[in-house]
What does this fold into?
Amino acid sequence: MQNDPPPIEVDPSPNFIRDLRELSKSYRHIKSDLQPLIDQLLQGETPGDRIKGVKSLAEPPGTGIVYKVRLKNSDVQKGKSGGYRALYYLKSQDKILLVAIYSKSDRTDIDATTIIDIITQYENQFLN
It folds into this structure.
């Protein structure tokens, strides 16, 4: 009998849902631009760059890490540099939280404090 790894769960935070809703008003292909990232996450991949300064010390090694991924915006002809930035939190090996998504042309970055606040709000609201 083969032990398959548990399925990976990818959940959006309320903040991510709100960001996606707002961006979809201007960029009608955002959901299809986002889908390859979700597919990668569901396959166990961790694309993107690790964001320093937001790891929780309470998390097991290899988890509790936030990544930022550059995504192409197919509604704007600027490639990934003028595309979206998606942030996700690797809570455990089988649980990922989509933290935020924004257009690079609208916003330059999200600070570590804001990221931690979004994660904390999600965990307090949905896990308690």
Remarks:
- The chain has three helices and five strands.
- Residues 9-126 form a domain with the YaeB-like fold fold (CATH 3.30.2310.20).
- Strands lie at 9-12, 49-50, 65-71, 84-92, 95-103.
- Residues 6 and 94 are 7 Å apart (CA to CA).
